[in-house]
Amino acid sequence: MVGDATRLPGGVRLVGYASSGQTQGVHLGVPSATLTVILSLDGPVRVADTAEELSAGRALGLDVLVAGLQEQATHVVRPSHEAGVQIALDPLAARALFGVPAGQISASMTQAFDPGAWGGRLWQRVGETPTWEGRFDAITEAFEGRLARADRAVGVARGGPRREIAGAWRLLTARRGAISMDTLAAHAALSPRQFRDAFRAEFGVGPKAAARLLRFEHATTRLAAAVRARRTPSLAGVAADCGYADQSHLSREFRGFLGVPPSVWLEQERRNIQVGGHLSREDWTS
């Protein structure tokens, strides 16, 4: 069930999920240029940073998960039945919603960020609400309350990131990562080094890494769109449209981020894609 992310402060994507009778296994969470929030409503979601940690039984079980920008795949245990809400958030909203910049929200599953008591209250309220629309309304109301309190607070730490860094982030996102770092630094009126340092402090990754994540997000959503339309994805076409040198470059990115080639990932994600997974940002907010 896809919710209206445009109503959610900082929302990029808002999705409810529920399934039963599925084959148990491991799901690869795709690296992302968004913050990830999961409210698990059918037992804790079990996650690990690596396959080795998962095999060794070091998966972390959480009812509420908040993770920062991720440069590697997350390994998520796929149980026979699950339900919950997954939210993708613009990292510019981190200070208002969580009281810290996105750069202070760990991408590591074993060092998950604790949202505090309000996260627990939200999880309980969402779990007690019987309909998806009601759950989405509860999340939106809770986030709006956090934003209102941040607006009343004094100082950039609560209110938002530096204006020039926020502007550079918006430009980078609008270009889907296809912009030079020198252009971004000039847009922020900072030297390249000053810009890199300020950007990393705010988001937890450097501008080149963020651009790489945004390009990869664009590529995965383009491939997923072809599968949903029952077309054979053109890896060469997607690579060209998303700013990669060639198909081999795109395949290397898949192996680097997910450890598998595009064809294997598409087969693994086919069911998820068919029920609305990996939508583009335009589809998320339409």
Automatic annotation (TrEMBL):
Q: What's in the keyword line of the UniProt record?
A: DNA-binding, Transcription, Transcription regulation
Gene Ontology molecular function terms on file = DNA-binding transcription factor activity; sequence-specific DNA binding
Q: Which InterPro entries match?
A: AraC_XylS_family_regulators, Homeodomain-like_sf, HTH_AraC
Name this polypeptide is given: Putative AraC family transcriptional regulator
What Gene3D superfamilies does the database record attribute to this sequence? Homeodomain-like
**Pfam families per the UniProt record, alphabetical:** HTH_18
Q: Any idea where the HTH araC/xylS-type domain is? A: 163-268
Taxonomy, superkingdom:
Bacteria
